[in-house]
């Protein structure tokens, strides 16, 4: 949150309210950020010297302050953008656990996979609909989600094709 | 939540436009379909999914009247397709059905415009009129600029849009699409799906979409999975 606000301030100083609006428009999607969170983040950034108050309008109150990014703030944003996010390894897999438990208990494991596949495809369908009606920002956000769901679905299909083999290994 | 074979109920209202009942088909000793059933209504996009060799293309060929099943029935608008003689069945395929395949469906010697006009010309329409309709469909599929080119001179994505235009030019009631984006990159594949589904919805045509790609299947309204020649539909409570 802090680094995202700093990144938005790189384009020029803003009031807290404008910053919240810019954040919601670009990154909020279905979950707008609370004012309180923006102000508490800004006070932390101010304390740490990453932003400074660039002007105060008459009348007082927190929304009257205009914040600008400092050179330390720019350094932090640059460092963040050029550091890779840690790739998620997804090794803790509830679906795998369910499949194994279904096999161990003599249930129909294929049904566990089929039901999950249907749920995944339904979610993909909703995202595809939203993407088709949306702008480029919507398309990119939905595509990110769609690729992840697709990865799960491919795993479900692959596992369905290997159920007999897995059942043998588990029972041996 | 239930998983069941042989879906018999519609997910929404409306009589089925096309229906397969307990289809069985073998090639020699190898069974391809082993009791597959499905229904599709007008204006509905149905994805037929399943691994390679599961029987989904055979199911599509039986549904489209290209191949007769060994047993079971295909009903189109309530009439048994498999009982029709060859002539009327071919006529039905030409006038009521449209086809989009992965590749190799356009005539290489004809221009893209002539390819799209071809189904209308085969139906006896005059060249000028047929080419006017074909031009409209090429425009709608955003490939009017390749009208005068031969398919070999168009890109894969353009060629596939031309193929969709050709499938749509007779305003068919059912479009059969077998891996329609299989040879395309993600972005081109997405656009072809948007245009195909958009055109089908606009004309209230049903689409039977065979695919193993989840992102393509996500353009459907409903999906049926074919596994070992059997069809399976899962219903989820919301």
Automatic annotation (TrEMBL), chain B:
Listed SUPFAM superfamilies: P-loop containing nucleoside triphosphate hydrolases
Record flagged with keyword Nucleotide-binding: yes
Keywords tagged on the record: ATP-binding, Nucleotide-binding, Transport
Domain ABC transporter as annotated: residue spans: 18-236
Keyword Transport: yes
Pfam families (alphabetical): ABC_tran
SMART domains: AAA (SM00382)
Protein name per its UniProtKB record: ABC transporter ATP-binding protein
Gene source species: Solihabitans fulvus
Lineage: Bacteria, Bacillati, Actinomycetota, Actinomycetes, Pseudonocardiales
